């Protein structure tokens, strides 16, 4: 009986100081391992394809695609974070208290940067639809890169301040050896919620309401206007259809993102001190991980250039000299 009790401890040699493993059927643990491992592999692979595509082909170096590249980088990092989640399925953290704090810090930074990137994508579409004549001068690749760098820097600084106590004294909130817990003060948690989710979501919703109002107004104007020059009207209509397709794609991307991310923030602020332990957030983390896997599938469904670039990568045509100049945006 004593041996049985010891096998339920994360560190049997520490006896009363060790955390206990949760009792779970072996078949369930295997199923979780396989599911998370599959999601991790698929997430990293698909997002690497996005990263390689946009980075390699010069024709894809547009402001919107640079923002999608930033999102793909964060999604790829999420896929790697799943490996840490797999390690603590049994409720035990074996990498030490410092690595526990770093795990949560990286998780928070990636989440914050993802939300910030979504805001930038919304602003990009807002300018493209509402101010099309000024888009090419206002939104340039250079300015977009600067905004992406600033987004990641601000996210890193903000989350370092949020988890400062946990980084200065790792493991201070652990109740036993083998536990991985960080605690965020309620005031800081509320501030982070306002800055990292409520504020950005409000901005996204307001921008997209304006986009849809302008798009509907333009659509009605096109339908009611009978131009003498049929060809010019056709060209204008095709341009508007292209822009509206881009809006629909980004809208699906953002809606899926919010559905997957909102539960994560709800759990973050659960409890009086917003306590968040690695073993207690498996569901919301898996939902967040699933979103990172879904994003490239959305690209594949809506973006022909992504399907064409993947074909170039899989067939190793990108290794040919001058392949980076391939017009991947052509229409068949």
TrEMBL record:
InterPro entries according to UniProt: GPCR_Rhodpsn, GPCR_Rhodpsn_7TM, TAAR
Q: Output one GO MF annotation.
A: trace-amine receptor activity
CDD domains linked? 7tmA_TAARs
One GO CC annotation, please? Answer: plasma membrane
Stretch forming the signal peptide: none
In terms of PROSITE patterns, this protein maps to:
G_PROTEIN_RECEP_F1_1, G_PROTEIN_RECEP_F1_2
Q: Where in the cell is it found?
A: Cell membrane
User: Which SUPFAM superfamilies does the entry mention?
Assistant: Family A G protein-coupled receptor-like (SSF81321)
Query: How the protein sits in the membrane?
Result: Multi-pass membrane protein
Similarity comment text for this entry: Belongs to the G-protein coupled receptor 1 family.
Any idea which UniProt keywords this protein has? Cell membrane, G-protein coupled receptor, Membrane, Receptor, Transducer, Transmembrane, Transmembrane helix
> What is the protein's major site of localization?
membrane
Q: Which residues cross the membrane?
A: 30-54, 66-89, 101-123, 193-215, 250-270, 282-302
DNA-binding keyword on record: no
Q: Which organism is it from?
A: Pundamilia nyererei
> Any idea what this protein is called?
Trace amine-associated receptor 13c-like
G-protein coupled receptors family 1 profile domain segment(s): 46-299
């Amino acid at each position: 009986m004593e041996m049985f009790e010891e096998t339920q401890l994360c560190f049997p040699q520490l006896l009363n100081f060790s955390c206990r493993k949760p009792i779970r059927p072996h078949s369930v643990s295997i199923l979780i391992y396989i599911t998370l491992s599959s999601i991790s592999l698929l997430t990293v692979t698909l997002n690497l394809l996005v990263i390689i595509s946009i980075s390699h082909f010069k024709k894809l170096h547009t402001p919107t695609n640079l923002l999608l590249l930033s999102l793909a980088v964060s999604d790829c990092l999420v896929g790697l974070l799943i490996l840490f989640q797999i390690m603590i399925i049994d409720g035990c953290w074996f990498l030490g208290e410092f690595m526990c704090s770093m795990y949560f810090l990286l998780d928070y930074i990636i989440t914050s940067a993802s939300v910030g990137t979504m805001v930038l994508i919304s602003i990009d579409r807002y300018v493209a639809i509402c101010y099309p004549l000024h888009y090419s001068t206002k939104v340039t690749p250079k300015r977009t890169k600067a905004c992406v760098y600033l987004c990641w820097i601000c996210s890193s600084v903000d989350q370092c301040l949020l988890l400062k106590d946990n980084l200065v004294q790792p493991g201070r909130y652990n109740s036993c050896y083998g536990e991985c817990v960080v605690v965020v003060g309620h005031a800081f948690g509320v501030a982070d919620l306002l800055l990292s989710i409520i504020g950005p979501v409000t901005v996204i919703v307001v921008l997209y309401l304006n986009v849809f109002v302008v798009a509907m107004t333009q659509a009605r104007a096109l339908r009611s206007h009978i131009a003498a020059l049929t060809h010019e009207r056709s060209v204008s209509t095709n341009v508007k259809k292209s822009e509206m397709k881009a809006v629909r794609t980004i809208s699906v991307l953002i809606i899926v993102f919010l559905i997957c991310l909102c539960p994560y923030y709800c759990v973050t602020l659960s409890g009086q001190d917003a306590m968040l332990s690695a073993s207690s957030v498996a569901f919301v983390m898996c939902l967040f991980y699933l979103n990172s896997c879904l994003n490239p599938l959305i690209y594949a469904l809506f973006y022909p250039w992504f399907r064409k670039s993947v074909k170039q990568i899989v067939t190793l045509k990108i290794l040919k000299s001058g392949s980076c100049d391939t017009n991947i945006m052509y229409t068949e």
